[in-house]
Inverse folding.
């Protein structure tokens, strides 16, 4: 959502050239409503944190506000279900623990995204800016090999790095993605450390 707002030129982050103690901080460039209730709420919350480091704000949201993050996820899943992309299914685990799953409904939207990723990363087609943003986010979360079909994983990673390292987007968008990437890496590392500590009894 942060990257989406950057693409829409609603937010930015201070560049690395600003110095180590000033770079990566949230800047608000336009508070005009986006006509999307979730993006507008995200913009409002980021505006309240203007001047703070984006990576810090995102890490805090992920670690201390899990319930808020979960509610957002549920609302977005419900939106996809209303659009027919997913289906909401209620069930139980072990016969008594309530569980909600979201299997695919109309797969055309997913197929379109996969086709764009496949044509860009395997067939060598020129991607759109939005596709490149998606590649960058999939790359940092380690999900890229799971959504693109190829026998040469090394070539896949090299192609993704080549594309996302290039001059393909406005500076503000690239800076926002860098900060989202930093926050994602930090969150994954924290989660891994917590799991290791729990496993060892520490």
């Amino acid at each position: 959502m942060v990257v989406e707002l950057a693409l829409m030129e609603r937010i930015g982050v201070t560049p690395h050239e600003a110095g180590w103690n000033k770079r990566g901080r949230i800047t608000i460039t336009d508070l005009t409503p986006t006509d999307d209730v979730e993006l507008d709420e995200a913009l409002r919350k980021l505006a309240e944190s203007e001047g703070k480091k984006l990576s810090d704000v995102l890490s805090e949201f992920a670690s201390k506000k899990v319930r808020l993050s979960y509610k957002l996820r549920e609302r977005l899943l419900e939106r996809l279900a209303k659009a027919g992309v997913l289906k909401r299914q209620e069930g139980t685990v072990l016969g008594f623990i309530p569980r909600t799953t979201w299997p695919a409904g109309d797969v055309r939207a997913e197929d379109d995204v996969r086709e764009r990723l496949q044509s860009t990363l395997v067939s060598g087609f020129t991607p759109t800016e939005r596709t490149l943003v998606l590649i960058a986010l999939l790359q940092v979360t380690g999900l890229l090999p799971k959504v693109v079909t190829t026998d040469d994983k090394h070539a896949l990673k090299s192609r993704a790095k080549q594309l996302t390292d290039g001059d393909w987007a406005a500076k503000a968008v690239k800076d926002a993605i860098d900060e989202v990437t930093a926050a994602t890496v930090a969150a994954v590392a924290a989660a891994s450390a917590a799991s290791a500590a729990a496993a060892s009894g520490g």
